Amino acid sequence: MKGKILIVEDQFIEANHLRIMLQRADYQVGEIARSVEQAEKIIEKETPGLVLLDIFLTGTRTGIELAAQLREENIPFIYLSANSNEDVLNAAKATHPNGFLVKPFREKDLLMAIEIARYHYEHGLESKLRKEALFQKQLNLPKNEQADYPQKLLEIAKTIQPLIGFDYMIAGFTTGQHFDLENTLHFLRAGFDEYQVLDTNSLQVVSNLPLKQLELINEKTNVGNKEAFYNDQAFKDHIRSSTLSNLISKTFGMSSLLTLPLTLTNAQNHKFHFSFYSRRAESYNEEHLALCIRLQPLLSRAMAAVTDLTQAQTLDFRPDSHPQSQLPINHASFEGIIGRSHLLLHVFDLINQVAVSDTSVLITGESGTGKERIADVIHALSHRKSKPLIKVNCAALPINLIESELFGHEKGAFTGAFEKRIGKFEQANQGTIFLDEIGEMPLEAQVKLLRVLQQKEIERIGGRAPVKVNIRVIAATNRNLEKEVAEGRFRLDLYYRLNVFPIHLPALAERKQDIPLLVTHFINYYSRKSGRKCSGLSEKALDSLMEYHWPGNIRELENVIERAILMAKGPVIENITLPVYPPRNTVKQADDSHLKTIFDNERDYIIEILRKCNGRIRGADGAAAILNIPPTTLGSKMKKLGIKRDYVI
């Protein structure tokens, strides 16, 4: 992270205090901007190495708007805000910041946040460069001259997948502004490494349309000559004019699109086009467009080479020449994770990207979704797989023994310490530590955990010197950590240190199409375990499973199937008894929905004091004196918390 630090803060005193703290720590500080417009002019003159960005600034534009530009130009930034309620955190999170500091903060908090931002930035950049280098290496591998054109194109599709995730891809030559149907193939993702290959005739069968109508749809579709992406509402608007995208969306359930046109580097300068579709509504962004621009020369050469290898042959796109076959899954480490839904495949993609590095991973999801199994897979795919994977359930650690359990103690360190104890972190040295239910860890322990993550060393209780540890950290929680941070129960700096690479596991209710596969797996497993012969379940029983909402997720489904096998009266499970949950207490829900955050309480308290002082801030009887803070600080707090004189006078 090189270059000066740009401070974007509208409060002069706070901005100047920031400058002094940074210069004291030997950081180079550039100009100070009070508004988004001023910041843009400064960035245009000189690109900063880091931006400290207040969210609420002078003028109508906010720091969140400037963040989009910083992200596009790959400039790291840290948010500064006095308001860390959940809504602000969610809006800020959507811009992918490198850190977040809640005012007021101490000097060491600022310096630590900068170090964390550097860690985020460098690891993110390292991961990006590694993936692109691997992509280039795979494209340059010698092609199998015996493989037919669809197989070669399929290999390129598999190479693209880690960089541009897709559930459906169209790849083909273009004539004018639309695809040449005779020279176009479709690839439907059916598993982690499985793709169903479709030509025009196959698409006609799947979509149940006459060939003439399919040709008419294609002729009315303008594929475009520039890379572009369409998410959510933009995708819905796009498919109104793009009839082919409309067909793909309705037939296969796609919700976003990224297009990549190519001019092949061969004698004919053929035009070629990739269309990547995803079932997730927000799959693509500006970074993907920048990536497409970088990939265009590589893909153009690769596609030209593929067509040159097959130019002596007549490209045969008939179904018989490339049956709608699927490549077998050969990723043994994913065994035991059952499913083929697009949400689970996205999780597989994320695991594949992060496993090879030492980046910290935060796994989130409801209880029973399989977070521990995901941690197992990440460790098994890493270079640390031959070293220990130590698992710690943070929710089960006694408060008075947390430090001893995690970091160990020396003999005689405290009453009852009759022998030396090696803590979990030291046991995991050279390997991986899995911190399950990290959201349950007390604040006092969070401070010590953060120090270990920062300094890569632990101190045993009663020890004389720190012990260096080399570990990879994977954490998991079923809590909403952004909400925990906003309500003061989880440290913001620890959250950003752990949340370098988040993986969210979908609830079973979100991927019900995987239930039949999971049921088959559990029936086979528990039939062998119990010694009972059970071949499956009736259609009625399966329907009841598909209609149930599964609050306990996969763990609950597993328990239901185990019980059903024991109670079955024959080889087929005819009926399954599902738990009946009482209706939720709507009054209690309403009360819970109005729980106030610490910032709401602070705002209400200040308003109450101002009312008692008749709106007076300064003087012996003013609100500032009662609150025991300087009037300028109270004025700043009122501005940040949105307190106006109208509320109190």
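Above is the first protein from milestone M3; the second protein from the same milestone is given next.
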Amino acid sequence: MSFDIQENLKRLPAKPGVYLHKNSFGDVIYVGKAVSLKSRVRQYFATPESLDAKTQALSKHIAEFEYIVTDTEAEALILENTLIKKYMPRYNINLIDDKTYPYLKITYADPYPRLVKTRVLANDGSKYFGPYADVGSLNRMIELLNDSYHLKRCSRRDFPKDWRPCLNGFIGACDRYCAEDAPSPKEYAERIKEVSEFLKGRDKQLSATLKKRMNEAAETMDYETAAKCRDLIEAAKIVTERQKVELLSSGNIDICLATRSDAGEGRHARVTVFFVRDGRLTGREIHHLDAEEGASKKEIIAAFLKQFYANQTMIPKEIILEEKIEDAAAIEKYLTEAAERGVKLAVPERGDKKALLALAQKDIQETGALAEDLLTAKKVREEAAAEALRRAAGLPAGGPLRLEAYDISHTGGEDSVGAMVVFRGTEKSGKDYRRFKIRTTDDSGKSKDDYASMQEVLYRRLKRGLAGDKGFEELPDVILVDGGKGHVTAAEQIVSALGVDPPIPVLGMVKDEKHRTRGLVSGDTELDLTQNPELFHLTGAIQEEVHRFAVDYHRGVRGKKVTKSELDEIPGIGEKRRRALLLKYGGIEAIRTATAEELTAVPGMNRAAAEAVAAWFLK
């Protein structure tokens, strides 16, 4: 059953939100925002004569769509921006300079904090508000707050005794923070506290003052001042509108919501996961679960948390739920051990996280039927890809396959490493990923060649699996190697030499001249993947993932080696001092130019150690 576009068009809500158009592979090819999803998304499926050339080209490739409902158009605008940067869709215009919406920051590190518009978030002691989709309103808001509270506007922090105040000081636009009669920092802090409360949405006091000033100006027929106050009130409404798609300083959060459904054959459940990364809502995933009749949402969520996050390489610090679950403490402990740091399950009762949870709950209510259709279409694609892979590997029909893919990464034969990634069916299984440092080298200490390195990795992996080594005992159904016939032959020799029975089929993932996935090699035959779009998409995803995993590991190994060779050879510099120096200076080059006096000031360093470092880099 494919995705029914016409049926899902009927279900679109007349509410603001973001929509994602996808092609037949399930790839996002366009992201857009709408004041009314119902009206906007329908336009893409109108008669071709009524569409412009770009939209006609896009519409031909739309196989399905999904959407996320927001409360306001401003929220939709910000979420659209985030998703475009995440997916880089083919039919969107992507900004190369990667600019984003501005924030308003209060510079608490200054003696007299200022209001500054910025597009960069930094750990500089400032407090950030936003982002704001309406830049004009933000500029007017900064003007309003500076005028209303007589805040400091200039960036200078130190003033000589004979300093003359600038024009702002002469006309009373600020309280002459450059002069001796400047307000005390304590008094100024109270003003900043009120400004902060206003920016958090608690703007009743300032709004009341503005309305009073507007009415007084209107009564005296000072219509220019009244109009300015009116515009500032409107700007305040726009700027202080809660942006639930962004949570500053909230880090990485997942929101997990369960839904029961009686549609289709038997009873089943659905869990939707909303991802907040670096404080930004970046999207969602929908997962289907087989659940017993009568199982509660709490039970579904508890089972999902244990199964889903067991396979994830990145577990967030906080997972938001809509209600408390049994065994929450045990699940938190389980996730904490898996993540190797603290993980918290939370049910927010107020604030930004409660508002974001409410947004997610509203989205699920609006998109329930759509989610079912998307899951069905995804399952059809996955089954087609799995069946095509079975045929390519010469395997009979059956359940989900365990696929293991291998790649080698090095720099001119140095710091050579191997990587193994695992897919169960068409899904990544992060907990099963493995990394290998290549041990087989020539007389110069470099790895011999990719074939030998691939054979070493496969030998070590399969040997441990055949010996019943925990973590390796489950053998793959299919081995995929990044390379052509030579790599396939090298891998098959290891499978044969170890006497694996039945033999594990080996497939080579070959690329074209543009370094894109081209085909699958089996023996002397190459399967042209352009004739099989589902398998092409799966193979490309596997090849990209194993390459990423291998390169990331290689960079880490090489980076540690460079750092170690420079610092660990210096007498008196151990692990703690090495970390302290790198934390202070950020890299070897900065340490190289530092004086002994400067190095002595680093925590954990004494004069002798500092002089040893300085002398080392003077050689």
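Note on the second protein: Residues 95-99, 262-266 have pLDDT under 50 and may be disordered.
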